[in-house]
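stuck on this chain:
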Amino acid sequence: MTNPSRLILDRLRAVEWSDWDGAQPHLRSRAALMREYLRRSALWADAFDAAGLWPFFDIALHIDPTIRADSDVAADLEAYLSGAVRRRTIRETCRGAVHWPTFRRETKVVLPELPDPYDPLLLLYGRGGGFYVEEHIDLDGISVPLGQLSDHLSRVPVVDLDPATLDALDAT
């Protein structure tokens, strides 16, 4: 059986981080995915008193820093990030996404029934790379307001992560 953390690292390695042309056809879905990530991240931050770390943080590291992916995966991740990803916010969420499956499997902490925080970002990255954070979140052609954590505390999903739904958004 393949290590789930390794699978996420492989997904990240497949991302074209500087593919501005590839991001253009996915502007609407990327914006919806970012809003969905902000919502999920806000729910996790609220549940574990991490408002000061929100929105781009390694949630597992905050909850229990002793549970991390296998050392070989972690080393490969750090080697990859040091060469491929320049922005701190993206590096931090990549770390969070890779360590998350191990944390979920091994934690003794009772976790709330909340959706996976990193799924929307992994899809966003795969649909055209990263983003910039200034007064808003710039997705290379469309902006998403960052706002405050409280603006994103909703149990109602922003978007269904189904590829057909995301493609339909981009087709409008």
